[in-house]
Every structure is written in C-alpha cells, then in structure tokens.
Write a structure and sequence with these properties.
192 residues; mainly alpha; 2 domains; 4 helices; transmembrane helix; membrane
C-alpha cells in the first residue's frame, strides 16, 4: 500500500504542477493579448496621427493650388471681359447716339460666359438634329429596304460629325447669319 500512496502522492503532485503550469500559461496568454491590443491601439493612433498630418500638409498645398487656379481664372475672365468690352464699345457708342443717356440699363453678369453658353446650345442642337436624322434614316431603311442600322451608336457619331460640320455653315448662310447658340446667348445678355 505504501507504493500506492506514493503513486497517488506523485500523481497529486503532478496534477498540482499541471494546474500551476496551466494557470501560468493562461496568465502569459492574457498578458500577451493585452500587449497585442495595446500595440494595435498604438498603431491605429499613429496611423490616424499620420493621416491628420498628411491632410494638414495637403490642405495648404491644395489651398495654394486653388488660389493659383483662382487667380489664373480671374485673369482669364478679366481678359475675356476686356475683349468683350472692346467689341461692345462700338455697339454701345452707336446705341448711345440714338438713345437717351437717362435709360442707363445695367447688364447682369452671367455665371457662364457667352461663348461657352453658345457652344453648349449649338452642341445640343447639333445632337438633336443628328438624332432626328439618324432615326429618320433608320425608318426609311426599314420601310423601303427592310434593313436597319445595327450599330446605332457608331452611326450616331458619324451623323453627329457631319451635322457638326454643316450646321454652322448652313445657319450662317441663312437669314439670321448666326447659329442658334449665338442668337440665344446674345439675347440673354441683352445685346440683340
């Protein structure tokens, strides 16, 4: 029996040692987890700080670029205004001779320059005419020959380019001597 008691004692010692060892492992794992969490937090904070710093550094550069672009845009606008003024000075001088000085109509400044507005209107008109011609051509092909246009986008581009070239020539040779974009951009300014 002595041997059995000794074996039990050894087993109990071994079990106690195992328990202590497991507890130590758990403690070490917990400590390592805490360290990992802390390092992750620190890394996140450092990344956030770096992002903030880079954003702060980019903001002055962007604002400097924006200021330069704004200055360039204002210079371009001033040059356009001067050229428009020189063009309209002759018209105004002839208008002033015929009209009273007391009328004094003020012009409103447009957010979109006249040339850009006329280009947009002319492009939209050209696109509408091209689309109408394309569908008309497709309808004629379908009714007379039983064929159709397979690539509508490609054909639209071809028709659009043809109309884009012919539209200003035809409009300037007509009674108005202006394209629709030029007419509407002038009337919105009050120069017509």
């Amino acid at each position: 029996m002595d041997e059995k008691d000794e074996n039990k004692n050894e087993l109990s010692v071994d079990e106690d040692a195992k328990k202590q060892f497991l507890e130590e492992l758990k403690n070490k794992n917990m400590e390592e987890k805490k360290k990992l969490e802390e390092t992750k937090r620190k890394e996140k904070q450092e990344k956030e700080e770096q992002l903030k710093k880079t954003k702060e550094q980019e903001k002055p550069e962007e604002s400097g670029q924006e200021e330069e672009e704004h200055l360039e845009n204002t210079k371009i606008d001033n040059i356009k205004e001067e050229s428009n003024k020189s063009d309209t000075v002759d018209e105004k001088s002839s208008d002033e001779k015929t009209s009273d000085n007391s009328s004094g109509s003020k012009k409103k400044k447009s957010l979109v320059p006249g040339n850009l507005k006329s280009s947009i209107i002319d492009t939209a008109v050209t696109a509408a005419i091209s689309l109408a011609c394309l569908y008309l051509f497709d309808l004629i092909l379908r009714l007379l020959f039983g064929c159709y246009i397979a690539d509508m986008k490609g054909m639209f581009i071809i028709v659009f380019l043809i109309v884009l070239i012919l539209y200003p020539v035809i409009m300037k040779s007509c009674k108005l001597k202006k394209t629709l974009g030029e007419k509407f951009s002038r009337t919105s300014k009050g120069e017509d």
